[in-house]
Known about the structure:
By secondary structure, this protein is of the alpha+beta class.
Amino acid sequence: MKRTKKKKKVQGFQVLTDECIWMKGGVVNFRECDNDFDCSSCPFDKGMRKAMGIDKTITTESAAPKWVTHLQLRYTGSERPCRHTLTGRIDAPKICPLNYECYHCAFDQMLDDMDLVQETTAPAYSLASGYRLAEGYYYHLGHSWTRFEHGGRVRVGFDDFSVKVFGAARQLDLPPLGEHVKQGQVGWTFTRNGHQAAVLSPVTGTVLAINQDVRKHPEIIHADPYHTGWLFILEPDMPKRNLKGLYFGKESHVWMDREVAELQKMMGREYERLAATGSEPLNDLFGLYPEVGWDKLVKQFLRSEPV
């Protein structure tokens, strides 16, 4: 019997439920969201809207999506939960005061604005050969990370391995707002003491927001690369296509173990000596052992050419 290959599914970071909004609204009996609630690029959502004759852009009451009617009929008065509570976008109970007329809801607009810059809860970590990996994150072979957030947007940053190998950056050159970056191509650069390096973008998309704190104080990245040290937020092009070039879960641990093994070969006996003492990974490997070679590290681990 021929086995069917299980399709990869976008794993949203700290998304509380996988139920599609069409299911939440009672339009369909069962449907799990496979697009991290990014309805604008969801084939199922487009098909449902086309079948119901709903305009793509919701700007007026007459153009409200069909699920609004179902929610209005199902929930009334004090038992009318906000649609963002239903979909898991917010984890606190909230009552809808506008009978699901979201198109003129200030709270709905505020959530969209906050999504671009808000900090979620710090991730849990696991170790791979001594280096931290944030759970729920995807990793690119150029040692950058991305996480898919509610609404389909993605956040991007450096991984723990890169900040410890290259040390604290002195300057960051991040892409400007509106810039379109491509997976596997140079997304940004950083500089340290006259040495510059290019980092490959983990996903393809358009830049929506930049972390101004790390632009002014790059040392934040070195201290907390997976949380406050994020770099920018993208509106991704076809998120599921990007999964082919990313590691997640157990496969990210296997990949990281291989990378550390390559670092051991590059360092030779010096790394063996450090490992024998039971020491944790150095916080600034290049700073302590510049003889390893900046360009060599860039080519091997960032998979880019020296700038």
